[in-house]
Amino acid sequence: MNRTPKIMVVDDDMTCRDLVTSYLSREGYDVVQAENGRLCLELLKDFTPDLLLLDVMMPELSGFDVCKILRKDEGTFHLPVVMLTALSEKMDRVTSIEVGADDFLTKPFDKTELIARVRSLLRIKFQHQQVIQASKMSAVATLANGVSHEFNNILAGIDGWAQVALSQKKEEVYLKAIEFIRKSCKKGAELVKGLQDYSTVPYDRDLHPLLTNINHVIETLLDMFRAQFESKKIELQVIYGNIPEIYTNKRGIQEVFLNIITNARDSLDNKPGKIIIETFIEDDYVAVKFSDTGTGIAPENIDKIFEPFYTTKGALGISKVPGSGLGLYISYGIIKSQGGRIEVHSHLGRGSDFTIYLLKKETL
Fold first, then answer.
1. Sign of the CA dihedral 108, 111, 115, 120?
2. Are the C-beta atoms of residues 254 and 338 closer than 8 Å to each other?
3. Is 33 helix (H, G, I), strand (E, B) or coil?
4. Are 117 and 125 in contact (CB under 8 A)?
């Protein structure tokens, strides 16, 4: 940790605020105080602390109300929150968790316990940031490798037909070569367009939900894979349902779909197979189901696949394709941050189904 963590203490009781500030300052933390929920929200417009200590019982806006607001904003969704409460009833503790708090302390709390909880949550937060950064680098490498592979396929095809046309010097061969070259150029243009669409908005600026056509996102990504699927004899079936546009983190969803499509391809282990993608509505969700006929996942590993650095690829898994073990971990975090979920069903040797459920938010 290269900088001093910043902590905000929100409590309408000045004595409690000063006491907590004293404890934390002695531990070397920078502490900012807010005397009520509204002031807390105002301060958060200008900066985001590393941790928020939030009193439950406050006038106007309770700690529960503030936490609900924070969890609806993508900029503060991952902000660790510890509820400070004088309430000891079980339902009040449950409510703290339901509104999105990461932990809670019952007043009067022990100084040692307070410091321990703060250290633990800050450690988790900074580890999560490190994994996010590593995953971004992994996603860029995956994208670059996929694009370069497909452009090599296109160029190899063009060069091959050009050599045939020059060697045979027949009009019908020339016409076939020109037709193939034109089709290849069209594929190349589609690939470039898909790459441009994917990288239009910088990742760190695309934090707020955008009205997104999920079917279009999938189609754009598939333009990067079609030539590769053809060369590997992978059958692709896409079933687009009549789904509405929804507000979601578009760039994050693109990264999730890229990870899952890449995993489906790799699970086939360079053998012919099939990938099926289907979109549909289920209850309050827009659902996207990715199915493959690949190697599948052993039952004992299903619960591990969303853990950081766990991989079923390379030397540690069935597939010979190397993997970082970060793709599914970050995908899970992105989907969860959107209020959605991922369900996985797999049979070893027969393939896997990954279904993503996104909240059907058509308005903000």
1. negative
2. no
3. strand
4. no
pLDDT tens sequence across 143-175: 666 667 677 778 888 888 888 888 888 888 888
- Biggest CA pair distance of the chain: 93
CA distance 292 to 236: 9
Looking only at the bridges linking them, the beta strands covering 30-34 and 6-10 are parallel
Distance CA 354, CA 89 (A): 39
Helix (H, G, I), strand (E, B) or coil at 284: coil
Give the SS3 label for residue 59: coil
Nearest 5°: phi and psi at 109? -100, 160
Tokens at 113, concatenated:
């316990």
CA distances from residue 105 to 95, 270, 276 in whole angstroms, order as listed: 13, 53, 48
Residue 321: predicted pLDDT: 45
CB within 8 A of 283, min separation 6: which ones?
Answer: none
Cβ atoms within 10 Å, residue 10: 26
Beta-carbon contacts of residue 4 (< 8 Å; ≥ 6 apart): 28, 29, 30
Helix (H) or strand (E) holding 106: strand 103-106
Whether the model pTM is above 0.70: no
3-state SS assignment for residue 282: strand
